Structures are given as structure tokens and as C-alpha cells.
Automatic annotation (TrEMBL), chain A:
It holds the Pfam family CoA_trans. Keywords: Transferase. The keyword Transferase applies. This is 3-oxoacid CoA-transferase subunit A. Gene3D superfamilies: Glutaconate Coenzyme A-transferase. GO terms for molecular function: CoA-transferase activity. The lineage of its organism: Bacteria, Bacillati, Bacillota, Bacilli, Bacillales. It comes from the Bacteria.
UniProtKB/TrEMBL annotation, chain B:
Belongs to the 3-oxoacid CoA-transferase subunit B family. This is Acetate CoA/acetoacetate CoA-transferase beta subunit. NCBIfam families: pcaJ_scoB_fam (TIGR02428). Signal peptide: none annotated. The keyword Chaperone does not apply. GO terms for molecular function: CoA-transferase activity. Pfam families: CoA_trans. It comes from the Bacteria. Gene3D superfamilies: Glutaconate Coenzyme A-transferase. Keywords: Transferase.
Length: 229, 232
């Protein structure tokens, strides 16, 4: 039985500003970025990533990139070598970089993308899914008939870093999410060696209902409070 | 394609949906929501909500990209949540889709084949940079309703013996709804079940190279957007 008061609880989760947190990302890192459109997108961490201009040769693992994204500058600055995700058609900067041969794109169906991350975090390296069987996205991948249906072998995804967003963190590093801003964030928190989370608010230990916690602190390394603009 | 034709297709799709949980794709399928029976059909959106409500009044709701936390699958369009709504992450959302839990999906289509293959996401010869959740949706939903204009803007047929555009999934379409006709797949065969009274069976056949039979329960309807489609 562990004893101690709230003041004595230490989980090792660090609380830094955005630039100091982004400083921890290694050269050539693979980086998962949370968000589905606007909700759940770590915009402040993304801006700090754009500001740290010496980081290049990056791989981004993110569902989609809209027409207007904080991360567009990374493509303009030629800092991305590869993108893995499900929907990039509407981002002009990325489409141009791809057509010029500057960026490699691994396109995955969105459900395959999210499951690859979930299983990457769960320690399962690959999985069979019926999605994409018989389509161009299954070309070059192993397939197998299971229960009379064709399935595609997909590799799970892990990353050096995840930059994600949650609504609140407590001072232990537990996270709660809001509405449709969860999306890929909880899975990404589990699948990276270094998880940096941007939150609206940081509260004391004990203020979050344990039943409401979407990501337990064990998956969190650094918490950044969104700065007032 | 005029607005009224899109609305007609959406309304006709809605007639297929009387209960259960449904995911509506982008485009014409989005319009289906306006014609659904109130309270009987719950809408799922892949970004993590079951129980999608109407869009908020744009005069009262300002989208702030920094703080918005409730949108539809476009990622940017604000929505509301119904009283029985729940939120979840993408893993659970695609468990609902791929796992066979959705009663139906209405999805836009570029082409549909006579064996129920669907092509909805890519055009040959162009860089293919986006697929989104369409493949998981179509592979998992119990019913796949393809909503599309009968011909392309260039007048080319879209309902074909075989799709020549990249596939979204094979053999998954259950129902095809266009501004002229409704086709259903029954035990692997394609049947014409409904046609508007503005054309003949021969004219429809000319626009529809896919092989199909006229169903025993085939009927001719008037194409009306206001009020119910009327049997003649």
C-alpha cells in the first residue's frame, strides 16, 4: 500500500512551455500529430514545431491535413520526408511537395490508420483487416482469406514522438478529453516514445474524476498549457 | 446537377432508412439528414459521435479553430449533439464502422458495378492523396446505399458492368439511388425496382450499361421534391 499526501505524489510527468517541449524532439523524428480537422489539433505545439527550423527529415503521422494548417510551413520549408495518414487531397502545399517528389505519402484507410496506432501502442506489430481488400491500397501487401473473406495484412504504427491535445491535465499528467476533440489523441498517446500534450487547463491532483480520465499519466511525458494569445 | 435533383436523390435515400444507426457520407448523403424520420434514425459521424444533431444557427455560432470541439466528419463544420449522444475516440468509432455495427451508410459514388463494386474516392491518372474513412464504412455497414447522379457531368454512364475507377470496396453496394432510378442487389443480382415516369425502360437502359433485370416489385414514380413521390 502506497502512502503519501497529494503534495508528495510524483509521476515524472514534466510541465514545460511549448518551445521547451518541442526542443526534446530528435532530428529526423517520426511524429504523430493528433486532431481531426480543428478539434483535438495541438495548434500551439504545431506552431512551436514550425518555429524550431533546424528540425528536418521528419515523418509526420497524422490523419489529415486540411487546406489551412499550421503545419503547412513544414512543407514549404522542405522539412518533411514522409507523411502517413488517410486524407491529404485538400492541402495544396503537400500536394505540390508530393508532385515535385519531395515528400513520400503512405495512404491508409482511416480505420486502418487509427487501428495501426492503437495496436502499435498495445504491442501488436501487425493485423489483418477486411478494409481495402481488392483495392489499390492493398497492392504489395500480404492478403489472406479468413472466414471466407479476403483480409489485408497491415503493419502497426509507433513513433518517436506524439504531439496531442487534451482538454485538461492534472498535475500527475492524467488527461481528460472533450467531445469530438478526442479522435486520434488517446491512441497516439500510447504509441510514441515521447508524448507531449497541449491542454487548455492544468488542475490539482484529485480534481479529475478517475472515471473520466481518457489517458492515464503512464502514457504522458510532457504537459504544455496552451498560452493565452 | 441542379439542387432539386440532389434533394430528390437525398429524399429518396431517406425513404430507405426507417430506423437504426446510419452514417451519412459527404456530398448528397449529407442532405439525407433533412428527410429522415425524427427520432427514429440516429446518426454516427466517424470523428467520434453517435447522436449527431442539427447544425447550430450560424448567426449565433462563431467557429473559433482554437476552441471548437464539436464538428462533423468534415472536421470544420460545427454540429450539435442530441440528448442520447455519446462521444468516443477514433478507435471506437471505427469499431462501430468496420465491426459491422452500423445499420446503413449512404455514400456518394463515382461508379457502381453490376456486382455491387463501389468506386468513390479516386480518378485514374490523378495523384491519389486522400481516402478518408470510406473504405471502412463500406466494408462494415450492414447496408450500403450509393447516392449518385445517373450520368457524369460529361454525360458518361456511372452504373457499369465493371468499374474502371479505383475501387473503394468489392461487392458491398446494396442499393443504388439516382435521379432516375433505384436499383437493388438481391442474392448477387442487380434489379431495377423503381424508375421516374419521365423516361422509358429503353431510355434508362441506354444510360445504364450494367446488366440488370426489372424486379417483380418494380414501380414507376413521379419525381417530386416537395411532398412524397407519387405512384402513377
Amino acid at each position: 500500500m502506497m502512502n503519501g499526501t497529494i503534495d508528495q505524489i510524483q509521476t515524472g510527468v514534466e510541465f514545460l512551455n511549448a518551445d521547451k517541449a518541442i526542443q526534446r524532439i530528435p532530428e529526423g523524428a517520426s511524429i504523430m500529430v493528433g486532431g481531426f480537422g480543428f478539434p483535438g489539433m495541438p495548434r500551439h505545439l504545431s506552431k512551436a514545431l514550425v518555429r524550431r527550423t533546424e528540425l528536418d527529415q521528419l515523418t509526420l503521422i497524422m490523419n489529415s491535413l486540411g487546406s489551412v494548417s499550421t503545419l503547412n510551413a513544414l512543407f514549404e520549408q522542405n522539412r518533411i520526408k514522409k507523411v502517413i495518414g488517410s486524407f491529404f487531397s485538400t492541402n495544396k502545399e503537400l500536394v505540390v511537395a508530393y508532385q515535385e517528389g519531395k515528400v513520400e505519402i503512405d495512404l491508409l484507410p482511416q480505420g486502418t490508420f487509427t487501428e495501426a496506432i492503437r495496436l502499435g501502442g498495445a504491442g501488436i506489430p501487425a493485423f489483418f483487416t477486411p478494409t481495402a481488400a481488392g483495392t489499390v491500397l492493398a497492392e504489395g501487401k500480404e492478403t489472406r482469406i479468413i472466414n471466407g473473406r479476403e483480409h489485408v495484412l497491415e503493419q502497426s504504427l509507433t513513433a518517436d514522438v506524439a504531439i496531442i491535445r487534451a482538454h485538461k491535465a492534472d498535475k500527475a499528467g492524467n488527461l481528460v478529453y472533450k467531445k469530438t476533440a478526442q479522435n486520434f489523441n488517446p491512441a497516439m498517446a500510447t504509441a510514441a516514445k515521447l508524448t507531449i500534450v497541449e491542454v487548455d487547463e492544468i488542475v490539482e491532483v484529485g480534481e479529475l474524476d478517475p472515471d473520466s480520465i481518457g489517458t492515464p499519466f503512464i502514457f504522458v511525458d510532457i504537459v504544455v498549457k496552451r498560452e493565452e494569445v | 446537377m441542379g439542387v432539386d435533383i440532389k434533394q430528390y436523390i437525398a429524399k429518396r435515400c431517406a425513404q430507405e432508412l426507417t430506423s437504426g444507426v446510419v452514417n451519412l457520407g459527404i456530398g448528397i448523403p449529407t442532405l439525407v439528414a433533412d428527410y429522415l424520420p425524427k427520432g427514429k434514425v440516429t446518426l454516427h459521424s466517424e470523428n467520434g459521435i453517435l447522436g449527431v444533431g442539427p447544425e447550430p444557427d450560424p448567426n449565433e455560432f462563431v467557429v473559433d479553430p482554437e476552441t471548437i470541439d464539436l464538428v462533423n466528419a468534415s472536421g470544420v463544420q460545427p454540429i450539435t449533439a442530441l440528448p442520447h449522444a455519446s462521444y468516443f475516440d477514433s478507435s471506437l468509432s471505427f469499431t462501430i464502422m468496420r465491426g459491422g455495427h452500423l445499420d446503413a451508410t449512404v455514400i456518394g459514388a463515382l461508379q457502381v458495378s453490376e456486382t455491387g463494386d463501389l468506386a468513390s474516392w479516386a480518378v485514374p491518372g490523378k495523384a491519389v492523396l486522400g481516402v478518408g474513412g470510406a473504405m471502412d464504412l463500406v466494408i462494415g455497414a450492414k447496408r450500403v446505399i450509393a447516392a449518385l447522379s445517373h450520368l457524369s457531368p460529361k454525360g458518361e454512364p456511372k452504373i457499369l458492368p465493371e468499374c474502371n475507377y479505383p475501387l473503394t470496396a468489392k461487392n458491398r453496394v446494396d442499393t443504388i439511388v439516382t435521379e432516375y432510378a433505384v436499383f437493388k442487389f438481391r442474392e448477387g443480382r442487380m434489379y431495377l425496382v423503381e424508375m421516374v415516369d419521365e423516361l422509358t425502360l429503353e431510355q434508362l437502359k441506354e444510360m445504364t450499361p450494367a446488366h440488370y433485370e426489372v424486379a417483380e416489385d418494380f414501380k414507376v414514380v413521379k419525381r417530386e421534391v416537395e411532398g412524397e413521390a407519387v405512384l402513377v
